Amino acid sequence: MSRILDRVMDGMDIETFIICVSEDEGRRLTLQMFREMGFTDADIVFIQFQGPGVRVRARAYVHRPGDNYGWLKAGPVEGDVK
Amino acid sequence: MKPLTIGIAGIAKNTGKTTTARALLEYFQNREISLGVTSIGYDGERTDNITGLPKPRVFLKKGNLVAVSEKCLSVSTARVKVMNRMDIPTPLGSIVSGRVVEEGLLVLAGPNQSRYLRTIRDWMYRHGAEIVLVDGALNRVAPMVETDGFILCTGASYDTDMDRLALETRGIEVLCNLPGTVEIPPAVAAGGKSVLWDQNGRILAELPAFLWEPGPLAILNGLPARAGGFYLPGVISSGCLEAIRRMTIPAGFKFVFENPVKLLLGGSVVTARLFVEDVLERGGKVFYRRSLPLIAVTVNPFYPGYKNETCRYLPAFVDGEVLLSKIRESVDVPVFNVVKQGPEELGGLLLVLGRQAAC
Amino acid sequence: MTPRTILLAPIDPVHDVGLKMIRRGLKEAGHNTILLPPDLPPEEIIQEIINKRADTVLLSRTLGYGVAEILARFVDLADALGVRERVKLGIGGMAIRPELAAELGFDAGFGPGTTVEEALAFVEDREYVPEQGKRDKQKRDLTASYTYAYGNSVIAELLGQITGGILAWVQNKTSPGVLRARAREELWDVRRWRGYGKMTEFLKEYPGLCGEMTRNFYLKGIMHPKTRRFTREEVAALENYVSKTKERMTVPGLQHSLKKPMVFNQYGTGCPFMDTGHIKVSEAWGADGVIHFDPSWGARTEGFMDGFLTHQEDGTVITPANLNRIKQSLEPGTLWQIRAHRGLNTPETAVLAGKFQADFTKINICYGALGAGTDPARMTVDGVAAIKYAAKYGLPFDIVTNEELCGVPAHKAFAGMLISCALGLRLGGKPVLQPLFCYSPEVMVEGWMKDNYVDFNVAKVLALRRIIDAPLWPGAPIGFLTHTEDRIQSSASTAYHASLAAMLGVDAVTIASSDEAYSGGPISAPSKVDTLRAVGEGFRFFGNMKLEPSPQALEWSWQIEEDIAKVLRQVSERGDFVGALYDGILGSREDGAYPGRNGKDTVMNV
């Protein structure tokens, strides 16, 4: 079985709002969140801090250009229609 | 023991300044030596400002003195009783000085000018500091002139070619430790300009303090035998030093620079070193009005390796043993890897220095 | 102020636009500026500082590996040459933060988004105070500049006849809603309530005027099944959250160079905690006002519960405690609207809005009766009472025309809106007209928005402007039924509608969040931010540009005006407003309007 992640063409964005006291903290928490989710290649696409926290768009790349793309060799994943 | 101010300067970013500072702080604190701690930059981030890699903070015990920007206190776990608000501005608020009343981690950010370092050092001495440690920033050396000597942190982050790194490190050592100090005629030093004087202390010519282009140096060409020396209070560029090397110089002619920093900042350390060695070899002399001894070197095999695939910096290392031996071979001062060796030898060296100064 | 000499040096291979903008600002403030060519070595910049006797140096540089060392060497050189002591050094660019400036040895660091004013303050040794209005928004009465004079005398006269009839009809009538409002008004003191004082008199009378659910709450302590009280710990945590967030709040405006429209955002997740979080986000991202949305069952329920209650479905329950908490969480300049408009609690909501010092309420008799399920007779009696309370508390109220969404044509909805408006004026109130900016069933069926979403919305505004000089507040929200679940499309659509509203010079708009069209759960904070940012971008894009109405828009506007007059004439001729509502003159069953049944037969003669 392939991982569903193999089918992600390039990256995966998380759009959210995190309560924090500064942009720095927001960045740190966002990247930490990705690490906790098992993504190592994560970055912040957009972040804006105002009093209540950060509006953030964060990205984890699953496939960078030049990688071996999982979706080219992906086998069936659980739940696929046979 | 006479109080001593020790600087920790880096040849570049990520060469282990804070690691060295932490090791020394631990060493001195274990021996209950009264410390004063400040920084000429900012070194409290959990991650590096540029590469995003993790960085250490410093741990301070109760009783030690600190001088840091106001904003550092709120993000430190060490509790500091503020004794003095100094009128020294920084991007992170004014500098406050005080004593640690509850041990913990401290974010270090201090003054950004040499003259302020003087004020802080004096305040720390007045309040009983036996050793004042000045944590450096990046590759900055200028404020080190206010110290009694400095430790140079060198490492792969400046250059992963260990031979070039050794050459550069040796260059800094030569510039700091080879020339001695000398007094110059009062009239020569008074104007704040570069001055050519004769053997009787009379001024022959004046040039700007900052010599960037070799043009004005033409007057040094074909110097009369009565020419005594050339004093330069500012910075001189590598190009100017090259130009001087091409000139003939009367025997015993003195080049007097304000301090080693003025040569270190000229552009190329290697060129400046060649200048010094060349002048000495040709019977001339090189002096400083004020010395800045290089006390020791620490090495750090770490460098931020840039990974193209991910566009990220990842920790990378050169061979630590090879690095240590290459640097040891090239310089005369002691060389340490404090991560491997611990702080005993380096700390001991500084204590000896302090006792010698007292004598 | 003595002019300073500022050297601006881009250390990048190209000139930095930010640096040039700052230069313009510094020049305008009377300082001497010298912009150096890009990418000079540190030594040459130092040489220039010495030669030009600069007081301040502003460098700009994009940060990358190795750049920090160049900048640090620059500072070192300045220090070693004695220049550092008399020159202030600032560094700006992407990724520059104060910590980094400190590390590099600079006096200040300016990141992206630095304003010219910030740089100017640095140059002039002043403490930088964010622009007026950023920290401190002033509330403005959007009705202030209007005369409410009629421009269409025929319509004015018809409205006079109709409202006269309504006021005469309601004179000897009352309802449980009106009686509760009176109890709330006369027996319930907000100050005593805040001080946990006893409300014996009120509690003796009020439960008897309520429906079963609310009565059970007061007499047997039974909660509505979808609600619960907050725990003491939760309340303390909320108080802590609000006070901490308030310390960090700045309240930017979205309008750029515009004076209006003000931008309103709705909240009403069901939970006052989540609402508070959402309100702070709305405020921090530029909303000028927020609107309280209560659950749909609130309109069908006689009476309000009390206590700090959360609700598991859409809409936040109106209770004095909920309103009080929400009021306390608002920034001082944030406008606050509590909707009264449509149900069995309309007059009492107006009283609570007044007592909790809201800035607006919302009342529309026709919409309440035809689109929101309230019995027309009851809605008329309660609506008039609500308008009186709004007038008493000086609360402007908007008259929303959401019956358009049921399928009622704009001109009929507008006729109803003008009746409520005229009632408001007769009773001393400050009505605000709220035409929908939407893709309504009427225009879908008629194909009037085949080409664009502009003309018909413009026609509505033009028609209303000719009829009466009154404030306009398109809503609610603008762009209704143009939104999809996609946040880009949805935010863009809202921004276009807001920009259209701005170009028409209206006074306010209510905007949706970018997940307005999603029905699987409450709206989210990021979705609010998206739409607010999009609207700000729209205002920035068009600035003070005005819109020239197309011939089609003009033609439609005349048609709407004419049709409104026709509808009003029919209502007037019917001689009985409530009867006209039943008969479908202001929106028929064929259109999609159904006279409501909630509160049927509850109107009492006095």
TrEMBL record, chain A:
Domain of life: Bacteria
Protein name, entry field: Uncharacterized protein
Organism from which the protein derives: Desulfocucumis palustris
TrEMBL record, chain B:
Annotated protein name in UniProt: Uncharacterized protein
From TrEMBL, chain C:
Residue ranges annotated for the B12-binding domain, each copy included: 2-130
Record-linked Pfam families: B12-binding
InterPro entries registered for this protein in UniProt: Cobalamin-bd, Cobalamin-bd_sf
Transmembrane residue ranges: none
Organism classification: Bacteria, Bacillati, Bacillota, Clostridia, Eubacteriales
Natural source organism: Desulfocucumis palustris
Name of the protein in question: L-beta-lysine 5,6-aminomutase beta subunit
GO molecular function, one term: metal ion binding
